[in-house]
Give the backbone structure.
Amino acid sequence: MKKWLLSLCMVLALVACKDEKKNEVKAEAKPLVKIGVSLPLTGDLAFMGNIAKDAVLMGFEKWKKQDTKYQYQLVIEDDGFEPRKIATAGNKLINYDHVNAVISFFDQPAYYYFNQATEKKFIHMTCSWGDDLSDETYNFNNITSHAEAAKRLVGYMKKMGIKRIGYVSQNNRGPMHLKDNMMRELAKAGIEVAYEETFNIGNKDYRMFLASVEDKPVDVIMAVFLLPDLFAFTKQKNEMGIQTPLTTVDYFEDPDNKEIFNNYFYVVASKGNDDFRKSLMEKTGSEAKACVANTYDNLDLLIWAYENAESEAGKIPTAEKVSLVLHGVKNRDGSVGKINVMKDGHIESRAYLKKIVNGQPTYIEE
Amino acid sequence: MLLHLLINTLIVGSGYALVAMAFRLMNSVSPFFNMTIGAVAVLGGYTAYWLFGLGVPLFWVVVLSLLASAFFSGALEIGIYTPMRKHGASSMVLMVASLGVYTIFESVIHLLFGSQYQTLGNIGTTNMINFGVMEIPLVQVLMVIASFAICLFLNYFLHHTFMGKKIRAVNDSSTLADIIGLKNNQIILTVSILTGLVLGIDGILVGYDTGLEPTMGFNLLFKGMIGAIIGGTASLSCAFWGAMFLALAENIGVALFASEWRDLIAFVIFIAFLSLRPQGIFQKKEMK
């Protein structure tokens, strides 16, 4: 028992020494801004989270080369996109590391940090489909809005002479919110929705549904499914001899094997401009996925805002001052194109139309 | 529409039936809710995916994947469940252990293959078979044939072979089987290997038909288990037809209401059977 106690005391002493040493360094340097980055580095979204991490590090390197007013430190934590891990990672970042701002990735963690940011008054920037993840002070959501995506896609449908569509979607928050926007735009454009159906996530059998709508011919089927389910839907549609093309948002780009979606058009949020994608590929060997460029821009915007916010001498700016600077962003160049911060904290960028040609995503000239 | 309903019931039901029969078979000698049944099927699919990646010919892919599933199933029995039974573990403890094994297995699959959806073969080029009234993908035809063939084979095996009789004896009363000198553990191991083969076939076919995900095991297990419970515990054929009944109910639900109702229908039927007719559709109430 005594040995255990002695060992524990030694470990605690070591931890204390380590913290003391850290503080000494801090005292000599410029004021420190700690930025927490919460990403899914394990679990279902790890394939995106790890690329987002690469992008964040790439952006951080760029800032490190500049002569900044403050010293910046990144604290990256794995939230696994899973409630328990999100809470653990968030607790560490906020209560142990005492970060000044947090960058998160996708809905689940974003909702956690949204509440924490409002309560503990720090800046939180995310890239998430949730439509209520930004506010006027502490929370910013950097994503192409569903309204913008719907406007672009329906505009293109009208231009293509599409008169009737079928609408199938998963019944989770993002797709449902997109559906509201799509229905509004479709009604405005006078495009008829011949049928609509929602499916649970994970459903792999669409044959019965497809058979039930075979007698309702449409020009295109809007299919808003995450990847495995979208594959199953497309495959079964083809197997049943239904030639109607599909359209969607983003999802056609996710798989390695995209041939099954050949000649289908769709709308995407920007995955980053050529320079960004090239740099990411050169430095990390990774191809940008959804929200990766937005997360890169979030870090860039955040550091830029800290550098430009007013502060007391020798101190870092308060979250409120940083927020003021962020709210002033209009037509700023970002990796996703021109960035505008709205009054409600939404960071808007434009949507693009693409088509899969020979298995490769290709921009459509508008 | 009716034709689609029947054919889709056959296809979906066949997938459920393979797991339902494996569940029923395993449960007959080792009566606990074995979560690793889903894992064994997933292993079959992923082994096939891995071997395809190495360029192994189809025949050997199938053979080696089935062997891998059978080996994994047998290894779980020898390495985990038999020692636990020796220490007097209850059904609940065995079930919790199987849940632990399933979780570890799923994590390993995540680590080895990533969380991304994977497909066996080229998903864009499906071989179709023309039946005049409609074309059906080859893999779905194979699934239907496999489920019927396995049902017939297992019924023959259980009723006309010495090992089958031993399995039925353990099913009737493991204590009595032990008293008359049957080696229960050996019989359970044989059933585990046999179950592994059936589940391996299911994993490969599902991998071809709808693709592979590390988390797919639970869904496979639950639908199969519901099919087995609906059918009743009288025989393997009951599990088979129970699975078909489940697929039919789901498809009628989709045709009449909406696709979102599919899982709800399955679980409502499950609860209804558990509370109103726990012996299943095809079994008469036991006389006391």
Remarks:
- The CA atoms of residues 147 and 181 of chain A lie 6 Å apart.
- Chain A touches chain B at residues 42-47, 171, 197-200, 202-209, 211-212, 227-228, 231-232, 235, 238-241, 255, 257, 259-260 (CB under 8 Å).
- The first helix of chain A runs from residue 2 to 28.
